[in-house]
């Protein structure tokens, strides 16, 4: 059961841009921001999925969404997408760098291209998103990178994702310093663990089973999309104005016990018979 703890107008008049906003966590964030009064620019690669999500957002909250197709790996395309969104709704108060890609793969079998695919989407994509929006930000803008427990928890079959997300959190801390100031940007990361209804959780649950994954967590269940979206509201509103360079873990305590790391490692050993 979800509880409304935010005022219904907490994001009224705010403009947000959300990469990866056509699906999963990022779409849930877009919906929640729109519900709380924001106008949202969603950016994603797949035109059909993008139009579907924009249609749903505008049906639920008329005029709330503007969609632009771009691949976050392409810096110039991201610059154009950010400019086009700002032209439509105005300068940005909130930037969510959420586009991500992942798969399970043994390190010794990852091609350069496979390793680069995830690093380029997650790490370079976050950099491209923030850089593209920098000149288009309102004062005291809230920048949020979607990270993952892999940034600090080593996980077998996740060399590419661990490296990419560690980079994302280092980038967040760096930009918090570089772009800070009383009227400057707040730059934080949100690190959800396993979230029900996402491709990410499906990949892990298929490999190890949900019970093995979440059973050892202090909060032994998957997160809901609503919980993640509400954490993203906190990071986007004045409640978090004094927080910067921080990673907010919303992971049921996964990072305390390395539960998924151990479960994935066990599954990997069985799968690879070693
Ligand atoms: N296992 C192993 N290697 C994979 C792979 C997988 N599941 N998916 C992609 N790769 C490799 C490809 O083989 C290729 O390497 P190669 O050129 O040496 O063969 C390289 O990664 C790029 O693949 P490509 O399909 O061209 O990349 P893409 O940019 O279209 O897609 C992902 C990359 C990560 C988005 C893709 O794996 C994917 O669709 N994942 C599932 C969706 C997802 O990640 N959702 C978000 C979860 S957080």
Structure description:
Helices cover 46% and strands 16% of the residues. The protein has one domain: Rossmann fold (3-Layer(aba) Sandwich), CATH 3.40.50. Helix 4 links the parallel strand 4 and strand 5. With 274 residues, it is of the alpha/beta class. The N and C termini lie far apart (43 Å). Bound molecules: coenzyme A. Coenzyme A binds next to helix 4 and helix 6.
Q: What's the short story on this structure?
A:
With 274 residues, the chain is an alpha/beta fold.
Give the H and E element order: EHEHEHEHEHEHHHEHH
Major sheet: 7 strands, parallel
Structural class: alpha/beta
* CATH level 1 name: Alpha Beta
Q: Which residue ranges are poorly predicted, with pLDDT under 50 across at least 5 consecutive positions?
A: none
Approximate strand percentage = 15-25%
What does the radius of gyration come to?
Answer: 18 Å
Keywords:
274 residues, binds coenzyme A, Rossmann fold, alpha/beta
Write the layout of secondary structure elements.
Layout: E1 15-19, H1 24-35, E2 39-44, H2 47-60, E3 65-69, H3 75-89, E4 92-97, H4 112-134, E5 137-146, H5 159-178, E6 186-192, H6 199-208, H7 210-214, H8 225-234, E7 247-250, H9 254-257, H10 259-272
Parallel strand pairs: 1-2, 1-4, 2-3, 4-5, 5-6, 6-7
The site of coenzyme A has 12 residues, from helix 4 and helix 6.
């Amino acid at each position: 059961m979800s509880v409304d703890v935010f005022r219904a107008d907490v994001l009224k008049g705010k403009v947000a841009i959300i990469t990866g906003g056509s699906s999963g966590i990022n779409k849930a964030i877009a919906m929640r921001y729109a519900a709380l009064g924001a106008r949202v620019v969603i950016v994603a690669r797949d035109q059909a999925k993008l139009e579907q999500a924009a249609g749903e957002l505008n049906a639920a909250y008329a005029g709330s969404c503007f969609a632009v197709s771009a691949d976050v790996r392409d810096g110039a395309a991201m610059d154009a997408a950010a400019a086009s969104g700002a032209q439509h709704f105005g300068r940005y108060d909130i930037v969510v760098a959420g586009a991500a890609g992942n798969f399970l793969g043994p390190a010794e079998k990852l091609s350069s291209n496979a390793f680069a695919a995830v690093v380029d989407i997650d790490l370079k994509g976050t950099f491209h998103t923030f850089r593209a929006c920098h000149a288009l930000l309102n004062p005291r803008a809230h920048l949020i990178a979607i990270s993952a427990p892999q940034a600090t928890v080593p996980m077998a079959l996740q060399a590419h994702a661990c490296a990419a997300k560690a980079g994302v959190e280092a980038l967040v801390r760096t930009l918090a310093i570089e772009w800070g100031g009383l009227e400057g940007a707040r730059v934080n990361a949100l690190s959800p663990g396993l979230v029900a209804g996402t491709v990410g959780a499906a990949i892990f649950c298929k490999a190890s089973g949900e019970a093995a994954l979440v059973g050892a967590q202090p909060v032994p269940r998957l997160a809901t999309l609503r919980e993640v979206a509400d954490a993203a509201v906190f990071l986007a509103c004045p409640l978090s104005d004094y927080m910067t360079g921080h990673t907010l873990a919303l992971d049921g305590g996964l990072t305390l016990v390395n539960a998924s790391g151990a479960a994935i490692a066990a599954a990997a050993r069985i799968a690879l018979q070693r």
